Amino acid sequence: MEKNQLSRRNFLEKSALIGAAGLAGLSALNSCSSRKSTVDYEFPPLLDKAPDGKTLRAGLVGCGNRGTGAALNFLAAGDNLELVALADVFEDKVWDCRSKLQKQKVEVPENNCFWGFDAYKKLLEVDVDVVILATPPHFRPEHFDACVQAKKNVFLEKPVCVDPVGARQIIATSRKAENMGLTVITGTQRRHQRDYVETYKQVASGAIGEPLSAKAMWLQSHVWFRTREEGWSDMEYMLRNWNNFCWLCGDHILDTHVHNIDVVNWFLGKHPEEAIGFGGRAHRLTGDQYDFFSIDFDFGNGVFSHSMSRQVDGCANSLGELIMGTEGYTNCVNTVYNLDGSVKWQYEYPKNKDGNSTEVVKISPYIQEHIHLVTAIRTNTPVVEAERTAISTLTAIMGRTAAYTGRKVEWEEMMNSTERLGPEEYVMGPVDMEFPVPVPGIQHKA
């Protein structure tokens, strides 16, 4: 148990449900019960560079490593793109980000740098066209709603929430953005990655026949953590160590493995109906999260996906997805195989200008998603990806809930759950809560 720990009972708040209108039409794609000869999916424009147009001014909310990287990805997407404002809860994060940007010849005016829990509100008062949201995921639903109310286009980093209440809020806000003609791109970069997109087209056109099963893996070494420093309050410590607290990042089944879960949902054409699984904690030194998850997602009609996520040193690592069908299988990223393991189709990566097949030219999918963002704005063809990413995030939440509780968890339970993670108010200082690690099942007494 950590010093000045927070109580999980207070952590789980009951919140009002978003109206039934926010619950309809939740499937991001059509059911895969019958494979079509045409692809039922709106593909992003896979351009090398966004088209020229009016100058687009962006603001960054969340000045950590991912936020700084996302800002640079935006600036690399085309011409006449500017970063003009920064916001973070911590002042030192803002100045550190600004310094890193200066080294890349990007100058953000000092008077457009804001910090504190309300920093995002101050940033929205600046003349910006696009807001990049890259804070800890807990804050995403509130920040996204504020951006849409301010009529801003948004880049929304994944995962887009940490709990069912947040997922429904993202869906409701997503529909507001659609009605307002805004563009919202999310950080599910595999859906903007050329080899994934072309492989999806093959599968959707019947290359592997009827999908039978899937698996998804994000198995890696431990990630960063912060030990508590003298003078840090409870709230400051959690925020500076956000990747290890469930209320801030949703546990790593959301924070990283949601990428793989999203790919499986995408290729199968729907979200799962229920989940059962397990997980545990073996080595973590801070926070309240698990070290590993093993979840079985049931998509109905006998189709299942085994989903594995682990962050432990000294173990076998693996990252990726696999879909097995009646006539073959695919690694989702670049190859379709026959049932005997021979290659049926393989994506051909672009060659260099000399036609050298040993050197392939790849545009970073982290930049490609921003090319899509800028292209949609400049060509007046709005696209909103937030709802489908909320569905994949809620799929991960369903898996997390199954592991934490040991129960079989159904999709409708998640859609109607009032679970909200986090404190009632955000104030630097002591927080009267604890961090018990979830223990599934019933403990037997001697």
UniProtKB/TrEMBL annotation:
User: What GO molecular function annotations does the UniProt record carry, in alphabetical order?
Assistant: nucleotide binding
- What this protein is called in its record is Twin-arginine translocation signal domain-containing protein
What Gene3D superfamilies does the entry give?
Dihydrodipicolinate Reductase, domain 2, NAD(P)-binding Rossmann-like Domain
Residue ranges annotated for the GFO/IDH/MocA-like oxidoreductase domain, each copy included = 200-328
Q: Which organism is it from?
A: Maribellus comscasis
The Gfo/Idh/MocA-like oxidoreductase N-terminal domain covers which part of the protein? 57-182
Instruction: Enumerate the NCBIfam families for this protein.
Output: TAT_signal_seq (TIGR01409)
One Pfam match: GFO_IDH_MocA
Q: Which InterPro entries match?
A: Gfo/Idh/MocA-like_OxRdtase_N, Gfo/Idh/MocA_oxidrdct_glycsds, GFO_IDH_MocA-like_dom, NAD(P)-bd_dom_sf, TAT_signal, TAT_signal_bac_arc
Membrane-spanning segments = none
The protein's superkingdom reads: Bacteria
